[in-house]
Amino acid sequence: MTDITLVQGDLTRESADAIVNAANSSLLGGGGVDGALHRRGGPAILAACRELRAGHYGKGLPTGRAVATTAGDLDARWVIHTVGPVWSAGEDRSALLASCHHESLRVADQLGARTVAFPAISTGVYGWPLEDAARIALAAVRAADTEVEEVRFVLFDDRAHAAFAARLGRLR
């Protein structure tokens, strides 16, 4: 069974085999986690993303899917980019958010990654309520058939950490 841990801190400072990027579909950087990982990881990540866009992902990475690149200057071997859904009060997009976690772990398994650090996908500018995102993310990781030994959720602030901690406590 995969060990799930929670850390409050800066995802760009984590040491793991793979760090998950809450990317936008362009794969070319942006705000929030995406921009921070591109800035700290340096130009190698952007160059790898441009190669993906020039090839199979010419129209961008679809929501709920995941793909890996080098981690550049980050303390990881890979960055796994996944595109989270924008939250909607009128449409249930929970399956897409769960897919981000399943697909990221599937890619991690293909790479041989044993430690994976996730952000709270879709909870920034995409507006997903933290408590619900925690419920979906933790359930998806718990249900995943994966060889990953540790999934670490790296949560930016007290509020995010508290939401994930409360949900994780209910799963144990």
Automatic annotation (TrEMBL):
Macro domain ranges (all copies): 1-172
Family annotation (Pfam families): Macro
Highest taxon of the lineage: Bacteria
InterPro entries from the UniProt entry: Macro_dom (IPR002589), Macro_dom-like (IPR043472)
SMART domains, alphabetized: A1pp
PROSITE patterns: MACRO
PANTHER family hit by this protein: GANGLIOSIDE INDUCED DIFFERENTIATION ASSOCIATED PROTEIN 2-RELATED (PTHR11106), MACRO DOMAIN-CONTAINING PROTEIN (PTHR11106:SF27)
Entry protein name: O-acetyl-ADP-ribose deacetylase
Organism this protein belongs to: Streptomyces ziwulingensis
